[in-house]
Amino acid sequence: MEYEQLMPFVEVPQGKKSFFVTLADYVTIEDGTGIVHTAPAFGEDDYNTGMQYGLPVLNPVDDSGRFRGTPWSDMFVIDADQPILKWLHENGVLYKKEIFAHNYPHCWRCHTPLLYYARPSWYIQMTKLKDLLVSNNNTVSWYPDYVGEKRFGNWLENVNDWAISRSRYWGTPLPIWKCECGHQESIGSRKELAEKAVEKIDENKIELHRPFVDEVHIVCPECGQHMTRVKDVIDCWFDSGSMPFAQWHYPFEN
Ligand SMILES: [Zn+2]
Ligand SMILES: [Zn+2]
Question: Do 159 and 182 reside in the same domain of the chain?
Fold first, then answer.
């Protein structure tokens, strides 16, 4: 069943069916009306449903939580609730309005309401390594043995791809440089960085954290322009997981 786009402000990919009724097993009549609006850019369940039905991922909100390119451009999304209701009413598409208490995610530290975004991230394709992980786990003598079989074994059976990038400032910088032409390069050592750097850097002294590492550029082998490091840092669990090897400077001295 299809319906018309309620508000015509966000451009939809031409020829792509974008407004229709889907099914999802997390929608129940015990909780609310049994009808849920799905916005694939703003929630994990929504995103998964969107992928399943080929819905476009539309996002009119920028990183500061403000609308872009609607009549509420520059307005913080939560402040736009009333103006949007007014617009719906004026355009004859408001059926009913009422105040409804429901759960909403908040920051556990400062209790600020949170906005969910679908955004591009860097992943390690752990699902590709699953068979190897499971077979290695089977050679480990776990004590008590059910931990290896059940807790860790089950976890490995259901292993997901690992989203390792974090859009934060502090942390181990992601060693990936990008060029405007689209070329990407992953730098594997201090030596390699020093060799490829445009700036003159001392391999033994370069501080590899932000902001210093962001001042290092490398020459694109495809087009000759300067490449810049992607801004993300790495999930701190990656540091933890590297520790047993890194403390012995594996796989090389620096
Ligand atoms: Zn907070
Ligand atoms: Zn390039």
Answer: no
